[in-house]
Amino acid sequence: MRLLSWNVNGIRAAERKGFVDWFSEIAPDVLNLQETKAHKEQLSDQLTSVDGYHTYFSSAERKGYSGVATYTRSEPTKVDFGFGIDKFDNEGRILQLDYDAFILFNIYFPNGKSRTERLEYKMDFYEAFLKHIDKLHSEGRNIVVCGDVNTAHKPIDLARPKENEKISGFLPMEREWMDKWVENGFVDTLRMFNEEPGQYSWWDNRGGARARNVGWRN
Q1: Which of 32, 128, 133, 159 has the highest CB neighbour number within 10 Å of its CB?
Q2: How does strand 215-216 pair with strand 103-108?
Q3: In whole angstroms, what is the distance from residue 213 CA to residue 207 CA?
Q4: Sheet architecture: strand order including 103-108
């Protein structure tokens, strides 16, 4: 099974840039998108009805914000659109798809950079998520998590760790939360196969960061 995960930073903008053709060409078994920034009723039929796929969308109450979407060839036996905690579920950050053999999460974790309250919200979300998956894990369930975690775990996961030690996304408490995740038996699948530096998933729009590969894997 081939699973892809991508923060599209606006699914409608991605559609204008050729997303539909790209999706048709890549044809994964499961595609998980984060930061879709749209409600389902705002999307074209090309995005909501894709031949050969079951589609699921979780949207924020606030339009144009957050949101996740999953396209899957195999129909899950159950789909949940949150943890059952309103302050998290209202932001459309969670899809939980149960395939019996495993549970797949598609999650757009909060960003804590804007202000102190959002960092607190992010850490609350982190702890709620860890508690949720620990319970499932204790029940013997296999779990796969795809998404935008919004934290670089180790110095190898960003180009300039020293300069970002006091920035949300690389704070000690955020990284310690990721340590807990690994200690509880979860595996960073990229690092299973690739221990090379320079493997990033996000670059600042300013200063030609992407061209110079000054990025973060978060």
Answers
A1: 32
A2: unpaired
A3: 11
A4: 78-80, 94-98, 103-108, 143-148
Residues 6 or more apart in contact with residue 41 via CB below 8 angstroms: none
Look up residue 162 and give its amino acid: K
- Answer yes or no: 148 catalytic: yes
For 30, counting Cβ atoms within 10 Å of its Cβ (0-12 exposed, 13-18 middle, 19+ buried), the class is buried
**Which residues have a Cβ under 8 Å from the Cβ of 57 and sit 6 or more positions away?**
36, 39, 40, 43, 48, 67, 68, 69
pTM greater than 0.85 (yes/no)? yes
Task: Please tell me which residue in 89, 148, 157, 204 is annotated as part of the active site.
Answer: 148
- Which amino acid would we find at residue 16? R
Number of neighbours of residue 29 by Cβ within 10 angstroms: 13
Instruction: Please report the sign of the dihedral spanned by the C-alpha atoms of residue 186, residue 1, residue 78, residue 201.
Output: positive
pLDDT 10s digit of each residue in the chain, 218 long? 999 999 999 999 999 999 999 999 999 999 999 999 999 999 999 999 999 999 999 999 998 999 999 999 999 999 999 999 999 999 999 999 999 999 999 999 999 987 899 999 999 999 999 999 999 999 999 999 999 999 999 999 999 999 999 999 999 999 999 999 999 889 999 999 999 999 999 998 888 999 999 999 98
- Which residue's entry shows tokens 């110095």? 155
Q: What are phi and psi of 146, to 5 degrees?
A: -115, 150
